[in-house]
Specification:
about 260 residues; alpha/beta; Rossmann fold; seven-stranded mixed β-sheet; four-stranded antiparallel β-sheet; globular
Length: about 260
Amino acid sequence: MAETSSPLFEVRDLHATTTDGTEILRGVNLAVHPGEIHALMGPNGSGKSTLASVLMGSPEYLVTSGSVIFKGDEIVDWSPDDRGRAGIFLAFQYPLEVTGVSVINFLRQALSARKGIDLSVLELRLSIMDWMDRLGMDPSFADRHVNEGFSGGEKKRNEILQMAILEPEMAILDETDSGLDIDALGVVADGVAAVRRDRSDLGVLAITHYQRLLNILCPDQVHILVDGRIVESGGPELATTLESEGYEAFRPAAATTTSRTGA
């Protein structure tokens, strides 16, 4: 995709630690333009999920230096609620159960906060039913408590349902494919693609271990994170190289960021 606009979401030399001072992110740089899909891959312990949490403003981590910029605004000091209202969405690797709150009421409250208006359940139901059908979800799930008794695949579909209804401008998908069989993965990936067809300017950062998700999403850029740094960036073919060579092939380059494609 040609970069004809300013970045929608940009991370500049981001460093972060746990609250006890353990350094995890050691200078992350990336820029997502409107309508782009970026994939972030890396071995266990490389900092992928930490990056997702930091980008969403989790209090479990401290940003020690660097910037996170959304639509031209520095958001490092913004709360998770402020980021969500502004249009940043995080799909969790392990979605939480919310006992006592139905899916439809959860979405009503979240969308009311996002749009700044008070919506009724009735106003949402038709839209939710349409998306549940597109995601292969039983309509009865709208009235069940959030993620309570859901299978792993149903939890991930519910995350995509939230993304569809809340209409974010930037979506961070933290290992949405984790624990899914090939059929459930296809449904979730097709759901992400359907949301993007409805909202062509949506920016996506998909964090994953597996090329199979990327085969469906077709990312514009692939980044490899090792030891808290993006050590290489390139086109979709980089994921294929990673599949054949493994992460060890990229560890010697950890001090610098390079590009196999010249991008």
